[in-house]
């Protein structure tokens, strides 16, 4: 082995993240990925879905929680539940489709029946279990519930751990991003519209989550899509022509360093954070008169000004959910392997708003987040190249040191830095280290 390629030595877990740098193995080592699934994804609050996806009694919606199949249900008394998608008999997956409405569940294998809250309702030839003392009322005959479930303004999270902070305490400072998205609905409620854009990344889940508040990349990575669109629009439409909706959405991705610096970064406990605030790439969309009127009627002009003044870009609820309140889209992170991640993108309707708003959100998702979009593949290529590049032994460390001494504590636990800072990376990886080293 040459001097340039010293024998690889894996550092201890506690030494993989330092204040100003991170070891490449946290993105490439399959054993670390398994540990993450147990110590981060198996412990903290993970996003499951939105209550509007199970709006009516008897509704169900299936998804995964830390790779485990689960069912979110609404029982016939209106209560919300998150159950493991496993029959209490011999373990067959109870629900095979994505969503629907039922009186009760019936397992496809031996027809054990379960209420929407998982309670066993009937067992064929139940008397056969008499000697064993098992009846349908025995908790062992019921579908098991995920240990903890919480909902914040319709956003449902669950935890595979019995212990830990309650949902609201865990959300901390980023709960305000959900507040603002809800406030943007004239009726004060959100609704996930049917359909999901799902696409697979050949890269580690952390690259996606870190990139969302990486303000040094858009003007470079998105030259191929955003800058091209700007140049062509200018040439075809004329310099001063108003931008069509698609260009209004795509153009700001190649704003200047100064623009993204000014957007700023906010960081909170548990790895959460957001970019933007006073300004963001979503701030200059054209007004929709009918929407403004509906908002003014619902809240009054002064309050509406306050609501629209909150102009956040991406908010990260570390590790599983990212939202864009100003354009009503969310993305859900589902790690599959150390180098494979599924990202699901959903669009939300602002209840009480004209359809134009929803159309804009769908247009945004199509252009930026869908599997055949213009902007997302730019990022995906960068994540894939990181995944490939970090296999090399050239250097084991990645710096996190940009503007390392410039964080400003706006209030206890709430840090601010200009957009080009590495604050968001440091903050997420600080939480990563805390989770990974926590005692059971
Ligand atoms: S495995 Fe479900 S009833 Fe037997
Ligand atoms: Fe990007």
Provide the list of bound ligands, each named once: FE2/S2 (inorganic) cluster, fe (ii) ion
The pLDDT mean sits at 95
Q: What name does CATH use for the topology of the largest domain? A: Naphthalene 1,2-dioxygenase Alpha Subunit, Chain A, domain 1
- Please give the number of β-strands: 23
CATH superfamily of the largest domain: Naphthalene 1,2-dioxygenase Alpha Subunit, Chain A, domain 1
Strand composition percent: 15-25%
Residue share in helices? Answer: 25-40%
Q: Please tally the helical runs, counting DSSP H or I stretches of 4 or more residues.
A: 14
- Classification by helices and strands: alpha+beta
Low-confidence stretches: none
The general outline is globular
Number of structural units classed as domains: 2
- Biggest sheet, in brief? 10 strands, antiparallel
Q: Please state the oligomeric state of the protein chains shown.
A: single chain
Descriptive notes:
- The protein has two domains: 104 residues, Rieske Iron-sulfur Protein (3-layer Sandwich), CATH 2.102.10; 265 residues, Naphthalene 1,2-dioxygenase Alpha Subunit, Chain A, domain 1 (Alpha-Beta Complex).
- The chain is built from 14 helices and 23 strands.
- Strands 13, 14, 15, 16, 17, 18, 19, 20, 22 and 23 form a ten-stranded antiparallel sheet that branches. Strands 6-5-4-7 form a four-stranded antiparallel sheet, with no helix packed on it.
- A hairpin with a 4-residue loop joins β18 and β19.
- α2 crosses α14 and α10 crosses α11.
- The longest helix is centred in the middle third of the chain and has 15 residues.
- It is globular and about 80 Å long.
- Bound molecules: FE2/S2 (inorganic) cluster and fe (ii) ion.
- The site of FE2/S2 (inorganic) cluster has 9 residues, from loops.
